[in-house]
Amino acid sequence: MDFLRPRTWAEALDLKAARPEATPIQGGTDVMVEINLDKGRPAALLDLTPIPELREWSREGDVIRLGAGVTYSRLIGELEARLPGLAQASRTVGSPQIRNRGTVAGNLGAASPAGDSHPPLLACDAVVEAESVRGARLIPIGEFYTGVKRNALAPDELIRAVRVPVARGPQYFSKIGTRNAMVIAVCSFSIALHAAERRVGTGVGSAAPTPRRAVAAEEFAAARLDWRGRSPLDPDVAGRFGELVAGAAAPIDDVRGRAAYRTHALAVLARRALGWAWADFRAGTGADSSAGSGGGDDRGSQ
Amino acid sequence: MRVNLTVNGRATAADDVWEGESLLYVLRERLGLPGAKNACEQGECGSCTVYLDGTPVCACLVAAGQAEGREVVTVEGLSRGDAPLPGAGPAHGDVSGEGLHEVQRAFLDAGAVQCGFCTPGLVVQAHALLAEADGVPSDADIREALAGNLCRCTGYEKILDAVRLAATRLGPPP
């Protein structure tokens, strides 16, 4: 095995082009588990932790550009107001020690259907910024997941950043597990109300070969919610929304749960999440308070 | 490969390191620091918790090469007399007479050490919690901070007692 240590992003891209079989490593919370437990032995490790710009995030217009090396801990501490759904999901990742190392980009690279970042990224219309020596390209999140632990990256590409729109309405993430910590999701769900566009975003995790949207549920809710009058949520609408989310899933029986349980639980999670989000919308809370005023930091680095 | 790093304030190097090796293996098997424990090797149990550049992490999930040029503090480094704790957060943890850090002393006094295997990881993680805390943390905050440290003797109540005792003795940060 080789250990490749680029000093700059350009050098990292050169190395990945020359050694496309190299496995990128950032926090190591997936890659090192594979090696430690002898589940796989990469030909080479490409260590991205020395590259300073990967640890930076910045606000570019209405989008947060989250560098591939920004840890969950920093995301929670620095971006909770602007990316509430993703921050909530980040809080449920592993333990403090894991959140101090793990990254959203690492979650994307691993592309496990159970990864906690995926549902909010789907609900928020995130875009993955991939780059190689051939150039950079933007991959809409809905096109990023291609199979179980497979993604749309070419062999010579690395994830440079993830672009996540600043919240313009309430967002929630909800997850089923056996404990309140250190849990790989049995199933998970995220919702984002895009209030200005009267649109609902969803993301379903750990209930299909890839994380996915529940498109029929999104369209149903967008059409049936009383955006103008902000009247209370009709329980029938909430219930139907839950059913449609469950219907979008294609779960399997595995060690963490049965397919039937996952389907049932998703309907409950989705119904509740819509209730929370709608209550916030009616109360006028849950949106990014600094979005219009330009308040809050516009960048962060470590 | 060779890995150069600072451990407990001392610059050191490990030779013949395998490229897929963890920082934990380097600390235990190459540098003779067995404090951090090797158990699950997948970040579940927290028994290998060390500071890496001031942040508590699972040493089993840090590739050895990723520690190149960086600063590591292990549980051994918390009990080094009155030396400052480089990279271990604000050094308001006064060290008691016998060379133990207040967090370590509190674990003994509270009866929070049973088989002892989880203790080093818990001590480092509790140290990190108290370095940030203003006074005695709430039970919810202690449980959240220690959520990634498993004690298979299930001595969690005494461990919570130890953290509260250490927090009381340390007082608020200066």
From TrEMBL, chain A:
Annotated signal sequence range: none
Key word Flavoprotein present: yes
Coiled coil: none
Keywords: FAD, Flavoprotein, Oxidoreductase
Domain (FAD-binding PCMH-type): residue spans on this chain: 1-169
Entries under Pfam families matching the protein: CO_deh_flav_C, FAD_binding_5
InterPro entries documented for this protein: CO_DH_flav_C (IPR005107), CO_DH_flav_C_dom_sf (IPR036683), Diverse_Substr_Oxidored (IPR051312), FAD-bd_PCMH (IPR016166), FAD-bd_PCMH-like_sf (IPR036318), FAD-bd_PCMH_sub1 (IPR016167), FAD-bd_PCMH_sub2 (IPR016169), Mopterin_DH_FAD-bd (IPR002346)
Keyword Phosphoprotein assigned: no
Highest taxon in the source lineage: Bacteria
PROSITE patterns: FAD_PCMH
PANTHER family, alphabetized: XANTHINE DEHYDROGENASE SUBUNIT C-RELATED
Descriptive protein name: Carbon-monoxide dehydrogenase medium subunit
Automatic annotation (TrEMBL), chain B:
InterPro entries referenced in this protein's UniProt entry, alphabetically: 2Fe-2S-bd, 2Fe-2S-bd_dom_sf, 2Fe-2S_ferredoxin-like_sf, 2Fe-2S_ferredoxin-type, 2Fe2S_fd_BS, Beta-grasp_dom_sf, Diverse_Oxidoreductases
Domain of life: Bacteria
Keyword Iron: yes
PANTHER family registered for this protein in UniProt: OXIDOREDUCTASE WITH IRON-SULFUR SUBUNIT, XANTHINE DEHYDROGENASE IRON-SULFUR-BINDING SUBUNIT XDHC-RELATED
This protein's UniProt keywords: 2Fe-2S, Iron, Iron-sulfur, Metal-binding, Oxidoreductase
Classification via SUPFAM superfamilies: 2Fe-2S ferredoxin-like (SSF54292), CO dehydrogenase ISP C-domain like (SSF47741)
This protein's name: Carbon-monoxide dehydrogenase small subunit
